[in-house]
């Protein structure tokens, strides 16, 4: 009887203690869940803040207006070689050729190194024309970077090419020679040649590397379009002559563009001069013989 009572009491005590343990475990679990819920709420709050921040940034970014492009802020890089002979006559800070070289947009050639493409040089005999497009497309374009004041000192014979060319009449837009006829910088000469030979986008791409580059096209757009529409060098020379006469511009002796006379006309005039000179010498010889005294 006592044992059963004692056992019953212990069972009752165990039953009373077991709920307490279960309640303790439940309390611990609830506290853990509470901590986790706090952590998750903090994380969600941070995420909400991040999302709101990103939304604010996106709103700010969308509110910023895109930068307005100028009229000539277009173009594409050239797929053909672009090179120059640098005579180091110019101030490196002002030289357009040096700037192109620093940005890897032009290759520097050595004196004595031959260039197979078209070369812009004052010693050229023909004018750039659309017929030169294939030469540029296959072999590229090069320019002589020298000072206009030191043309007599420039060793042009050391910068050889089978295709030397002159540029027709154009007006400079660079800050040093702005508004001066034919005093073009390297990038202007290169861009003009590209434009005339049908590489307009490449020309605009090179000019766009300079803050004043668009001004070159603005000053010369009419002439460049006229030159680009010509069939050959002779037509360009005729268009140049017509423009100079219309605008009452007198050709200057120190310009780099060729004479409006064709090579055939020059040869004919020289032949006429030689014929006239020989005829004058013959006439003078006859007169001298007539004036000689008779021998006794």
From TrEMBL:
Biased composition (Basic and acidic residues) is annotated at 17-31, 64-75, 286-296
What does the function comment of this entry state? Aminocarboxypropyltransferase that catalyzes the aminocarboxypropyl transfer on pseudouridine in 18S rRNA. It constitutes the last step in biosynthesis of the hypermodified N1-methyl-N3-(3-amino-3-carboxypropyl) pseudouridine (m1acp3-Psi).
Catalytic reaction annotation: an N(1)-methylpseudouridine in rRNA + S-adenosyl-L-methionine = N(1)-methyl-N(3)-[(3S)-3-amino-3-carboxypropyl]pseudouridine in rRNA + S-methyl-5'-thioadenosine + H(+)
Keyword S-adenosyl-L-methionine (UniProt): yes
Which InterPro entries is this protein grouped with?
RNaseL-inhib-like_metal-bd_dom, Tsr3-like, Tsr3_C
Where is there biased composition of kind Polar residues? 54-63
Residue ranges annotated as compositionally biased, kind Basic residues, are 1-13
Pfam families according to UniProt = Fer4_RLI, Ribo_biogen_C
**Which domain of life, per UniProt?**
Eukaryota
According to its UniProt entry, one GO biological process term is: maturation of SSU-rRNA
Q: Where is the composition biased (Acidic residues)?
A: 35-53, 265-281
Q: State the protein's name.
A: 18S rRNA aminocarboxypropyltransferase
Renumbered to this chain, region (Disordered) spans 1-75, 244-296
Does the record's keyword annotation contain Coiled coil? no
Membrane-spanning segments:
none
The record's annotation in PANTHER family points to: 18S RRNA AMINOCARBOXYPROPYLTRANSFERASE, RIBOSOME BIOGENESIS PROTEIN TSR3 HOMOLOG
- 16S/18S rRNA aminocarboxypropyltransferase Tsr3 C-terminal domain span: 118-244
Any idea where the RNase L inhibitor RLI-like possible metal-binding domain is? 81-114
Instruction: Tell me which residues bind S-adenosyl-L-methionine.
Output: 96, 144, 167
Molecular functions (GO terms): rRNA small subunit aminocarboxypropyltransferase activity; S-adenosyl-L-methionine binding
Question: Can you tell me which family this protein belongs to?
Answer: Belongs to the TDD superfamily. TSR3 family.
| Keyword terms, alphabetized | Cytoplasm, Ribosome biogenesis, rRNA processing, S-adenosyl-L-methionine, Transferase
Phylogenetic lineage: Eukaryota, Metazoa, Ecdysozoa, Arthropoda, Hexapoda
EC code(s) of this entry? 2.5.1.157
């Amino acid at each position: 009887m006592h044992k059963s009572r004692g056992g019953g009491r212990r069972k009752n005590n165990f039953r009373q203690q077991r709920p307490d343990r279960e309640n303790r475990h439940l309390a611990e679990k609830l506290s853990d869940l509470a901590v986790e819920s706090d952590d998750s709420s903090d994380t969600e709050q941070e995420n909400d803040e991040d999302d709101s921040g990103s939304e604010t940034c996106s709103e700010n970014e969308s509110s910023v207006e895109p930068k307005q492009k100028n009229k000539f802020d277009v173009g594409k890089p050239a797929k053909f070689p672009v090179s120059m002979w640098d005579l180091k006559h110019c101030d490196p800070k002002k030289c357009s050729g040096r700037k192109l070289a620093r940005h890897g947009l032009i290759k520097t050639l050595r004196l004595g190194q031959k260039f197979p493409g078209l070369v812009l040089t004052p010693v050229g005999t023909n004018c750039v024309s659309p017929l030169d497009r294939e030469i540029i497309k296959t072999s590229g374009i090069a320019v002589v970077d020298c000072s206009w004041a030191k043309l007599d000192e420039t060793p042009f014979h050391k910068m050889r090419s089978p295709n030397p060319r002159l540029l027709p009449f154009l007006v400079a837009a660079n800050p040093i020679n702005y508004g001066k006829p034919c005093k073009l910088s390297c990038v202007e000469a290169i861009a003009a040649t590209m434009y005339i030979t049908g590489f307009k986008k490449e020309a605009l791409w090179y000019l766009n590397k300079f803050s004043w580059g668009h001004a070159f096209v603005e000053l010369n757009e009419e002439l460049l379009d006229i030159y680009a529409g010509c069939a050959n060098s002779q037509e360009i020379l005729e268009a140049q002559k017509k423009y100079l006469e219309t605008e009452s511009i007198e050709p200057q002796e120190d310009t780099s563009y060729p004479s409006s006379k064709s090579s055939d006309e020059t040869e004919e005039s020289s032949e006429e001069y030689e014929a006239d000179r020989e005829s004058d010498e013959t006439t003078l010889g006859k007169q001298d013989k007539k004036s000689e005294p008779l021998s006794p």
